[in-house]
Amino acid sequence: MKILVINGPNINMLGIREKDIYGSDNFESLNEGVEEKARELGLEVELYQSNIEGEIVTKIQQAYGVFDGIVINPGAYTHYSIAILDALKAVSIPTVEVHISNIHKREEFRKKSVTAEACIGQISGLGVYGYSLALSGLKQYLSERKYLLDR
């Protein structure tokens, strides 16, 4: 199974920005943890990060027919990017949305996820561990789906 992990704006600043909210793990350790969990689960993973909405949309479109699943942390685009929502809907690749902080315990504007509508699930508030849970959950979902389709 091939999984694309997409990180949006400012995720590359982990360990530098708002440590009281996002913790002290840096972006490199996040990526290392994702790769380690993917190996443990027998998944092939590609990591991608961009601060630019259009680049994220293009990467999602390029995933069509290539990846079995997507893990995405759209960052601030979570709350207003219809373009990312539409790209996720267009490719119809099972997607799990991840947030390091608990978006439901933050400012009012952060409590609404526009992009979650195109996702099979959302993990929020468990720090970088949320990525491991997203990979595990996505593998389980894809395995069950394949089993049902093969019957």
Summarize the structure.
The chain is an alpha/beta fold. The protein has helices at 19-22, 27-41, 53-63, 82-91, 129-150; strands at residues 2-7, 44-49, 69-73, 95-99, 121-124. It has a single domain (2-150), classed as Rossmann fold (3-Layer(aba) Sandwich), CATH 3.40.50.
Average pLDDT taken over every residue: 91
Helical residue percent band? 40-55%
Strands ordered across the widest β-sheet: 2-1-3-4-5
Distance between the termini: 19 Å
Uncertain regions: pLDDT < 50 for 5+ in a row?
Answer: none
Tally of structural domains:
1
Radius of gyration of CA atoms, rounded to a whole number: 15 Å
What form results from the Cα inertia axes?
globular
Organism: Andreesenia angusta
Keywords: Amino-acid biosynthesis, Aromatic amino acid biosynthesis, Lyase
Pathway: Metabolic intermediate biosynthesis; chorismate biosynthesis; chorismate from D-erythrose 4-phosphate and phosphoenolpyruvate: step 3/7
InterPro entries: DHquinase_II (IPR001874), DHquinase_II_CS (IPR018509), DHquinase_II_sf (IPR036441)
